[in-house]
Write a structure and sequence with these properties.
single chain, alpha/beta, nine-stranded mixed beta sheet, five-stranded antiparallel beta sheet
């Protein structure tokens, strides 16, 4: 199979050209690390660690994982006087925060005040309760509501991270609380990385943690392995696990989130769950209720393709509309993820295809070439070509166009400005799907971001931040776009501060 055929095979299974390159690079590095990624983490005693290692690195605070949460934790720990080391198993800052669009959700911010939006943490707390927070620990819901806005101000005011001028509505919220980084999430990651370097944090890349070191019931650091010849004992007074989620670990998804088994993912290539497993191996408690973060996707491009047009008509495999095409993306994701084949279909007409820009037309043509899009003189023919009930699809389109002509979507309430006729042949049917952007489950932590054991007690010297412990905040469905990214930065801030303060205590 040549390179083009190989890439088409990957794309046909949900991979984009861009992600094919990134995943290939990441997979090559992981393969080069040999048995590290294949070994199940285990508890290692201090004596065993010393016997296995060929060198030792000592510090006050050790951070495991180089995403937004981990780098922030390291920066704040160092700023608060702790000698800090961060280890990352990939060769770059590889957390999913480096791939995020860049929205942070929060209330009571200076940016809201500047735009005349009267908002406070209390309103955000009440919103969280409507999105599953009432089923979670109330202290964590209050903590996040109180500090999310503070984190946005810290990034914007203290670190001069650029934000777009527009605040957005997300989830089912009625208050604009989504603060959008400019141009994307990398600006925040770069800012905290620079802060960490300025405060003297040492970064060791290509250094996967293999197991936690435990002595007399207390965590004393981790054993990591750069290569078969370079095994390092990292001895630390406090250890912060910030290794991200586990969407790239199919066994963990099957165990903890079986409803989403098999869903394609676009998370960082290093999100394979070893960091979480290390803690579970020493008795850490797991909290999660089977949910994942996800978006709508199309196999011809990464992320949420612009071909997923809310002005198109979307149908299921039976040719029937199933939701408001302009509805909340995350809510539609949960619905589609449970469809057979985890697919839905968008109906275009000639006018919509002709309106595509050059890049989108290239993606459209690729979809036709791959056989996941179909074009025909009638929508019935196009639907039949993809295995959809063409007759039902034709009937649905006729009913949809009648609603458009009347100016009211009586089926799902799509707003008039998003209604346009789809009545010029030839017609196209585009196969769409979903992909995961994170896992909602992991370590159970308190608001000090100490990892708790199954008896509810803090494991001595062990902290956590970011997606690896976000199940303590998010119940099942995503509250609103930007909550996960803000949880990473907020938990990173406080895990770093608390760990550093505990070292000095």
């Amino acid at each position: 199979m040549d390179t083009r055929e190989t890439m088409r095979a990957f794309v046909g299974n949900g991979f984009s050209r861009r992600n094919f390159v990134k995943l290939a690079a990441g997979t090559a590095l992981l393969a080069a690390l040999g048995p590290i990624t294949g070994c199940a983490p285990k508890t290692v005693s201090a004596q065993e660690a010393s016997a296995s290692a060929n060198r030792t690195v000592s510090c006050d605070v050790l951070v495991v994982g180089g995403g937004g949460a981990g780098v922030t934790a390291a920066a704040l720990a160092a700023q608060n006087g702790a000698d800090t080391v961060l280890i990352e198993k990939m060769g770059w800052l590889a957390g999913s925060s480096s791939l995020a669009i860049g929205t942070l959700y929060g209330a009571g911010t200076k940016m809201q005040q500047e735009q005349g939006i009267d908002d406070g943490w209390e309103g955000l707390y009440e919103y969280f309760l409507t999105r599953g927070g009432d089923k979670q620990d109330d202290e964590m819901q209050r903590f996040c509501a109180q500090h999310f806005g503070e984190t946005i101000d810290w990034l914007r005011e203290d670190l001069a991270v650029p934000f777009k001028d527009t605040l957005s509505l997300k989830g089912t919220d009625t208050v604009p609380r989504a603060h959008n980084l400019k141009p994307d999430a990398t600006v925040a990651l770069n800012a905290v990385y620079a802060m960490a370097l300025q405060n003297g944090v040492r970064f060791d890349f290509e250094m996967p943690a293999e197991s936690l070191i435990v002595e007399n019931g207390e965590v004393k650091g981790v054993l990591a392995r750069h290569s078969a010849e370079d095994v390092v004992e990292y001895r630390a007074a406090k250890t912060i696990i910030a290794t991200g989620g586990f969407c790239r670990n199919s066994q963990m998804i099957d165990e903890y989130m079986p409803d989403y088994s098999g869903v394609y993912t676009e998370v960082g290539v290093g999100c394979t769950g070893e960091g979480l497993q290390m803690g579970l191996d020493i008795g850490a408690d797991y909290i999660g209720h089977g949910g994942t973060n996800g978006i709508l996707a199309c196999a011809v491009s990464a992320g949420q393709s612009k071909l997923i047009d809310k002005k198109a008509m979307w149908v299921n495999a039976e040719g029937v509309r199933f939701n408001n095409e302009a509805g909340q993306t995350h809510d539609i994701y949960y619905q589609v993820a449970h469809f057979p084949g985890q697919s839905f279909y968008a109906v275009y007409d000639k006018a919509m295809v002709e309106a595509l820009n050059a890049d989108l037309k290239a993606s459209y043509d690729l979809g036709l070439e791959m056989g996941i899009f179909a074009e025909a003189e009638t929508v019935e023919e196009a639907g039949n070509a993809l295995g959809i009930n063409g007759a039902a699809l034709q009937q649905q389109l006729d009913e949809y166009n009648a609603m458009v002509a009347a100016g009211e979507d009586t089926q799902f309430g799509k707003k008039a400005e998003n209604l346009q006729p789809i009545d010029q042949g030839p017609f196209s049917v585009l196969t769409m799907g979903v992909c995961t952007h994170g896992s909602f489950g992991g370590y159970k932590v308190n608001t000090q971001f100490q990892v708790l054991d199954t008896a509810g007690q803090p494991i001595p010297n062990l902290y956590s931040a970011g997606e690896v412990c976000c199940g303590s905040f998010i119940y099942d469905d995503y509250p609103a776009g930007g909550c996960g990214l803000n949880f990473s930065y907020t938990s990173g801030r406080y895990a770093g501060i608390n760990a550093a303060n505990a070292v000095r205590a």
